[in-house]
Design goal:
GO terms for molecular function: DNA-binding transcription factor activity; sequence-specific DNA binding. By secondary structure, the protein is of the alpha+beta class. The chain is built from twelve helices and ten strands. It has helices spanning 8-21, 111-120, 142-153, 161-177, 182-189, 194-207, 215-221, 226-237, 241-259, 264-270, 276-287, 291-305; strands at 27-30, 36-41, 48-52, 55-61, 63-68, 71-76, 79-83, 87-95, 102-108, 135-139. α1 runs parallel beside α3, α2 (111-120) packs across α5 and α6 (194-207) packs across α8. The longest helix has 19 residues, at 241-259.
Length: 306
């Protein structure tokens, strides 16, 4: 008797059950598998600024909205989110409840692993590519969901993780390379492409955002003319280089004030601002309140949640 094929709904329901077993309410928990994170949130969230690193993000239950510049991405149990670069975003959980919490995962990746798989394999052509953005959504499939299921299930068999986790991750990269985001992923992983050259400059900017910005230097790093580089940078990130740097600076300043208890002037100086008044104006536009009031609100919210 032929076995009935598993539906996507069934596959994602099983994945949700597995994620729920390894998480607790309100907790973002790194797993024992390198680069795998599990999430469980019982409530809707306010829009929160943050950054997505090169990763694939799945939601087994619930939904989330991510804003990159003016672009909006919604993903849920039917769609995954692909982030091919380090990108500053505003994210919000838009479907969650105590009875049906938001359950998701994130698997980060190193382009060296993707490039090695491309070099080792005769890959079939990817599906059509519709965007130049470094972030996009793709349709979930049963084989991709099952691969993630096997990866999460390894948390019950820790002795098998060193051997089997890399094998399963390689399958996941393969399914991405031949799926909706395959062309974009190949462009970012392949040495010498314009996407890879811009990605290299973005990595430098991420690691040196407190330094004065000269777009000409970034363009030279990417082996492009300034106008060409600016065009490709905006196409990939939905931001200009200056906007990208500004968001990284403001996010880091917020973290320094909240976690390290720096005052606004010192935080501004550490992330590269020379004018405290300019910092305060841009901070207020980004986060909706001046630095002191914003940090006070965040601390009060944390105390209330506890």
């Amino acid at each position: 008797m032929k076995k009935e094929k598993q539906t996507l709904h069934e596959a994602m329901s099983c994945l949700a059950e597995s994620i729920a077993r390894f998480t607790e309410d309100g907790e973002l928990r790194p797993s024992k598998i390198q680069d795998l994170w599990l999430f469980r949130k019982p409530d809707l969230s306010e829009p929160l600024t943050g950054a997505y690193e090169p990763s694939i993000c799945l939601i087994a239950q619930g939904a989330k909205r991510v804003m990159l510049g003016e672009d909006s991405y919604r993903y849920d149990a039917s769609h995954y989110l692909f982030s091919g670069l380090h990108l500053p975003v505003v994210a919000q959980i838009i479907e969650a409840s105590p009875d049906k919490p938001y359950l998701g995962l994130k698997l980060t990746f190193d382009y060296r692993d993707i490039s090695q798989l491309m070099a080792d394999s005769q890959l079939p052509p990817p599906r059509s590519q519709k965007t130049d953005r470094g972030m996009s959504t793709g349709k979930m499939t049963v084989p991709l969901a099952n691969a993630f299921q096997r990866l999460v299930d390894l948390l019950d068999e820790e002795q098998d993780i060193p051997i089997l986790a890399p094998v399963i991750q390689r399958e996941i990269w393969y399914r991405l390379l031949v799926g909706d985001e395959g062309a974009r992923l190949r462009q970012l992983a392949a040495t010498g492409t314009q996407s890879q050259q811009v990605a290299r400059a973005i990595t430098w900017l991420k690691e040196n955002f407190s330094e004065p910005l000269r777009v000409e230097n970034l363009a030279e790093m990417a082996s492009m003319g300034t106008s060409t580089f600016h065009h490709h940078f905006r196409n990939m990130t939905a931001l200009s280089p200056l906007q990208y740097q500004k968001q990284l600076r403001l996010q880091e300043a917020r973290r320094l004030m909240l976690a390290d208890h720096l005052d606004a002037a010192n935080a501004a100086f550490q992330v590269g601002y020379e004018s405290p008044s300019q910092f305060s104006r841009e901070y207020s536009r980004q986060f909706g309140a001046p630095p002191v009031r914003d940090i006070s609100n965040l601390r009060e919210a944390a105390i209330g949640a506890g």
